[in-house]
């Protein structure tokens, strides 16, 4: 996908997250983009590795910086957490130039924002790590083994919370499949 | 009596101390090669003092990494149980092991650099290769394994690689929280000592004051902290700061901004880099550097400079033209630079001007360069009287540090006047953005 079309989808995701009362910091954008790409099959082409708060894409992080440099998004700081990323002065340019791309993936973007917009960073970290482990193990492992593995790679996530995250992931996944199959 | 600690004089850190085992790394062929790799490529053509090499930078990174390790693992500087749990016990064998790995990783983090530390690795290396991969290959090589084996505390090559190149480049590896922290000490976007050293060193040698900050205060106040204590946020550990260091951190991040905008993205420095890339692509076999380790170790800036001088005199040399641009200081000149007014109309304005100029003058006479800062660095946890707060909420200036972005279109110097007139006339039409067609 072309860089500017990708920017248009990220901007659309940010706006949808905000509509769903998300804090919309970088972690929120990172994890929801991970779901958008890996679960909803939007072909953004980011490579995610297990890093900050679960799956993380350095490519996406760099693109958010580029969007800030281009004034498409900007930082808004408010306590007690890290900054929110909000549409910037040139965001209108993207919407004007790429209406078809935004429309094409609007259903998937709205789904992710609606399902995960209310999640805080701790929820996002757990559920995104759950999806990461499921994809990595091709969902062949028992739930209890996957929960233990999550606890092993992220020791601050307890086995009990990892179990809950795996259940949340399964619920979202079920709804996502219905959405993908719907006309 | 045989000396076990060796001191090396350094213009930035005064003395750099290393033990006999580390001295073996210093004496190795891959490390000695760094004596002949300029830290800032051909920046010395713009800032004549900037002739320093990767060799002394790598020593500086090791010195700073050791100081950071001492501070952040000191039990007096650890307040949170969750952090204590991921750290090896102070002065235990494991603690000594990781100090060794960190220092060796710091020493070796740049050994895979191409001549002139060339950034255009995508163009100058075969697909799938970058200097970090070459670094990893050298650390794994038989020659270096011999050195690791003889050390009193023996580091594993894979551990050195992980810490030296970090999760961004060691994608196939899984990092524990502790390994992530250690790699952050070297290559982290905010408090990585690689950056600390190069800002101080590049600033000193290029003769600009922008890169300076209070490294002593900054390092003394570094802490490993949970990202937050709030159960709604992540408690994952990361490198943060005690409140007393916040002004030093502000100075570091502004120093980075000024150094990028004034030195690293100086347009003449950038065009010399492009002419050098043109030279290398025309001279090297298939336009690429070899990734064979012996070939890599055999080529430094010296060999490249000798060939550039030869090529500049030889009209039949395949890289004669770019060599002449460098040797005779007849670089292409800036026709257009990224600016906020045009960005507001078209975020891709630099590329649009480049494409139009290529159509008008042909792509041999026009060059393009664009860069945007990578990695977010302004937000980190700060320990303030036992509570963890976010830097960006505490500091008025941190949120105002601009993102570094530069973009240039260069044109062959004899065409400059004509091209300027052409661009002035056609500018509005050229940068008119195009909507999507499908």
Structure description:
- The complex is a heterodimer of chains A (183) and B (438).
- Chain A is mainly alpha-helical and 183 residues long.
- Chain A is 63% helix and 8% strand.
- Chain A has one domain (3-181).
- In chain A, the strands form 2 sheets. Chain A has a two-stranded antiparallel sheet with strand order 1-2.
- The mean pLDDT of chain A is 91.
- The N and C termini of chain B lie far apart (78 Å).
- Chain B has a domain at 5-267: Hypothetical protein af1432, CATH 1.10.3210.
- Chain B has a 4-stranded mixed β-sheet.
- Chain B contains 21 helices and 9 strands.
- With 438 residues, chain B is of the alpha+beta class.
- Chains A and B meet through strand 1, helix 3, helix 4, helix 5 and helix 7 of A and helix 4 and helix 18 of B.
Please give the alpha-carbon distance between the first and last residues of chain B: 78 Å
Order of neighbouring strands in the sheet with most strands of chain A? 1-2
Shape field of chain A? globular
Q: What's the number of domains of chain A? A: 1
Strand order of the largest sheet of chain B: 3-4-7-8
> Which percent bin holds the helix content of chain B?
40-55%
Biggest interchain interface, per-side counts: A-B, 47 and 50 residues
Structural class of chain B: alpha+beta
What descriptors fit this protein?
heterodimer; A: 183 residues; mainly alpha; two-stranded antiparallel sheet; 9 helices; 4 strands; 8% strand; globular; B: 438 residues; alpha+beta; Hypothetical protein af1432; four-stranded mixed sheet; three-stranded antiparallel sheet; 21 helices
Topology overview:
The complex is a heterodimer of chains A (183) and B (438).
Chain A: H1 3-19, H2 26-38, E1 49-51, E2 54-56, H3 58-69, E3 73-76, E4 84-87, H4 91-97, H5 99-104, H6 106-116, H7 121-136, H8 143-153, H9 159-181
Antiparallel strand pairs in A: 1-2, 3-4
Helix pairs in contact in A: 1-6, 2-6, 2-7, 6-9, 7-8, 7-9, 8-9
Chain B: E1 5-10, E2 14-19, H1 20-26, H2 29-33, H3 54-72, H4 81-86, H5 93-108, H6 121-124, H7 131-140, H8 142-150, H9 157-169, H10 177-187, H11 193-206, H12 215-220, E3 222-226, E4 237-242, H13 246-264, H14 267-283, H15 293-298, H16 301-313, H17 320-327, E5 333-337, H18 340-345, H19 349-361, E6 366-372, E7 381-384, E8 387-390, H20 391-394, E9 405-411, H21 416-430
Parallel strand pairs in B: 4-7
Antiparallel strand pairs in B: 1-2, 3-4, 5-9, 6-9, 7-8
Helix pairs in contact in B: 3-5, 3-11, 5-9, 7-9, 9-10, 11-13, 14-17, 16-17, 19-21
């Amino acid at each position: 996908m072309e860089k500017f079309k990708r920017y248009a989808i990220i901007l659309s995701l940010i706006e949808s997250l905000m509509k769903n009362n998300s804090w919309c910091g970088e972690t929120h954008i990172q994890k929801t983009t991970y779901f958008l790409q890996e679960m909803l099959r939007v072909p953004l082409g980011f490579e995610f590795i297990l890093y900050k708060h679960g799956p993380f894409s350095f490519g996406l992080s760099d693109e958010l910086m580029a969007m800030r440099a281009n004034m498409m998004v900007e930082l808004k700081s408010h306590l007690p957490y890290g900054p929110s990323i909000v549409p910037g002065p040139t965001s209108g340019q993207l919407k004007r130039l790429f209406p078809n791309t935004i429309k094409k993936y609007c259903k998937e973007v709205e789904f992710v924002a609606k399902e995960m917009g209310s999640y805080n960073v701790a929820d996002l970290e757990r559920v995104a790590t759950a999806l990461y482990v499921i994809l990595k193990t091709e969902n062949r492992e028992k739930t209890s083994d996957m929960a233990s593995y999550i606890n092993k790679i992220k020791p601050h996530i307890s086995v009990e919370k990892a179990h809950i995250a795996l259940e949340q992931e399964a619920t979202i996944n079920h709804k996502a499949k219905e959405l993908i199959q719907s006309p | 009596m045989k000396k076990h600690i060796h001191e090396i004089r350094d213009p930035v850190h005064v003395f750099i101390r290393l033990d006999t085992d580390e001295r073996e790394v210093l004496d190795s062929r891959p490390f000695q090669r760094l004596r002949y790799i300029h830290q800032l490529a051909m920046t010395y053509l713009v800032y004549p003092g900037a002739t320093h090499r990767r060799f002394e930078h790598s020593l500086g990174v090791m010195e700073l990494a050791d100081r950071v390790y001492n501070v952040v693992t000191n039990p007096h500087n650890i307040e949170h149980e969750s952090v204590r749990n991921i750290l090896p016990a102070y002065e235990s064998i494991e603690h000594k092991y990781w100090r060794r790995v960190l220092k060796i990783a710091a020493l070796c983090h740049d050994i895979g650099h191409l001549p002139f530390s060339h950034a255009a690795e995508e163009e100058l290396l075969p697909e799938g290769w970058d200097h970090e991969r070459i670094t990893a290959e050298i650390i794994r090589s038989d020659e270096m394994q011999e050195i690791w084996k003889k050390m009193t505390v023996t580091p594993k090559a894979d551990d050195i690689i992980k810490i030296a190149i970090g999760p961004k480049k060691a994608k196939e590896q899984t990092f524990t929280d502790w390994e992530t922290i250690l790699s952050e000490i070297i290559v982290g976007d905010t408090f990585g000592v690689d950056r600390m050293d190069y800002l101080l060193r590049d600033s000193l040698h290029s003769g600009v004051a922008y890169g300076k900050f209070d490294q002593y205060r900054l390092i003394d106040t570094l802490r490993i902290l949970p990202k937050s204590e709030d159960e709604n946020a992540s408690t994952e550990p990361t490198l943060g700061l005690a409140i007393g260091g916040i002004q030093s951190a502000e100075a570091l991040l502004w120093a980075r901004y000024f150094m990028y905008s004034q030195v690293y993205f100086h347009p003449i420095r950038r065009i010399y880099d492009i002419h050098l890339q043109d030279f290398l692509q025309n001279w090297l076999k298939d336009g690429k550097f070899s990734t064979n380790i012996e070939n890599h170790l055999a080529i430094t800036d010296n060999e490249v400079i000798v060939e550039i001088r030869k090529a500049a005199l030889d009209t039949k040399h395949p890289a004669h033209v770019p060599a002449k641009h460098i040797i005779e200081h007849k670089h292409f000149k800036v026709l257009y630079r990224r600016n906020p007014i045009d960005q507001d109309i078209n975020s891709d304005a630099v590329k649009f001007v480049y494409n139009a100029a290529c159509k008008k003058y042909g792509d041999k006479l026009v060059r393009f360069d664009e860069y945007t800062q990578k990695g977010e660095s302004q937000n980190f946890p700060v320990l303030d009287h036992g509570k963890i707060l976010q830097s960006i909420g505490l500091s008025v200036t941190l949120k105002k540090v601009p993102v570094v972005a530069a973009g240039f279109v260069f044109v062959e110097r004899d065409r400059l006047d004509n091209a300027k007139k052409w661009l002035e006339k056609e500018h509005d039409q050229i940068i008119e953005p195009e909507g999507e067609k499908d």
